[in-house]
C-alpha cells in the first residue's frame, strides 16, 4: 500500500474519530444521558476526578482488546493491535471535545435544549461512525469486540450491539449506585437517562439516512483505496 493512500486512509478515519468524540462532548453537555459506550468512563471520572474521561476511555478499550484475545486466542491477528493506538487517539480526542464544550458554557438545564443537544449528538456520532469505517484504518475496540461477539455467537451485529450497550449501561448504573447511591449519575452530572436511549436507538436509524450521502461524498476518495482489510 502506497504511503499516500495509507495517510489518506488514516486521515479519513481520524476525521471520523474526531466527530465521534465531539458527539461524546455534546452528549455530556446535554446533561440528559450519554451514549452507552461512553457511560463507564464518564461515571468513573465523576468518582475519580483526577483521571480524565479520555484516560478511562482508552483504559476501557485496552480491556476490550484483552477480552478479544481471550475469545480469539490464536485467531487474534497482529493487525488487531492497531486498536491500541486508536484507543489512545480516541481517548484524548474525547478529552479535547469535553474541554472545548466545557469552555463554552455550563451543562444544559432547559429540557428542550437538552433534547436538541442529544439529537445533535446523534447526528454527529452517526456521521463519525460511518466516516471512521470508510477510512478502513482505525477501528475502535468496542466495535471490534461487538463484531467478534456477533461472529462467535452467530447473531446479527445489531443484536450483539444491543446486548453490548445494555451491558455498558448496566455496569454504569451499578457503579453509580455504589459510588453515589444513584442510578443516573452523581446527582449533578447525568450519565444515564433518556438521552442514553436516544443515542442508543436513533444513531443507527440516523445512519440509514446519512450513510448513503457520505458514501457519495467520499466516493472520489475511497474509490482510490486498494481492496484491503484494515
Question: Can you describe what's shown?
Answer:
This protein has 230 residues and is an all-alpha fold. The chain is 74% helix and 0% strand. The chain has helices at 3-30, 39-47, 53-72, 83-104, 111-135, 141-153, 157-180, 194-222. Helix 6 packs across helix 7 (157-180). The longest helix has 29 residues, at 194-222. The chain is globular. The chain starts with a helix and ends in an 8-residue tail after the last helix. The mean pLDDT is 92.
Count the domains: 1
Total strand segments: 0
Oligomer: single chain
Flag low-confidence runs. Answer: none
Mass-distribution shape: globular
Q: What structural class do helix, strand and pairing data support?
A: mainly alpha
The total count of helices amounts to 8
- The sequence of SSEs as H and E is HHHHHHHH
Largest sheet: none
Distance between the termini: 11 Å
Amino acid at each position: 500500500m502506497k504511503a499516500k493512500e495509507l495517510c489518506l486512509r488514516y486521515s479519513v478515519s481520524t476525521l471520523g474519530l474526531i466527530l465521534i468524540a465531539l458527539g461524546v462532548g455534546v452528549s455530556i453537555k446535554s446533561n440528559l444521558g450519554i451514549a452507552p459506550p461512553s457511560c463507564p468512563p464518564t461515571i468513573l471520572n465523576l468518582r475519580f476526578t483526577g483521571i480524565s474521561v479520555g484516560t478511562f476511555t482508552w483504559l476501557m478499550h485496552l480491556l476490550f482488546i484483552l477480552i478479544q484475545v481471550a475469545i480469539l486466542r490464536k485467531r487474534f491477528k497482529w493487525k488487531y493491535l492497531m486498536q491500541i493506538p486508536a484507543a489512545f487517539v480516541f481517548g484524548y480526542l474525547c478529552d479535547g471535545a469535553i474541554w472545548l464544550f466545557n469552555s463554552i458554557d455550563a451543562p444544559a438545564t432547559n429540557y428542550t435544549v437538552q433534547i436538541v443537544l442529544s439529537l445533535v449528538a446523534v447526528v454527529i456520532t452517526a456521521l463519525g461512525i460511518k466516516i471512521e469505517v470508510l477510512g478502513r484504518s482505525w477501528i475502535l475496540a468496542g466495535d471490534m469486540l461487538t463484531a467478534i461477539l456477533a461472529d462467535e455467537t452467530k447473531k446479527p451485529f445489531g443484536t450483539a450491539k444491543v446486548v453490548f450497550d445494555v451491558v455498558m449501561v448496566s455496569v454504569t448504573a451499578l457503579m453509580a449506585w455504589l459510588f453515589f447511591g444513584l442510578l443516573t449519575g452523581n446527582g449533578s452530572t447525568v450519565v444515564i437517562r433518556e438521552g442514553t436511549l436516544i443515542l442508543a436507538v436513533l444513531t443507527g436509524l440516523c445512519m440509514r439516512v446519512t450513510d448513503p450521502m457520505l458514501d457519495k461524498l467520499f466516493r472520489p476518495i475511497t474509490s482510490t483505496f486498494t481492496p484491503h482489510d484494515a
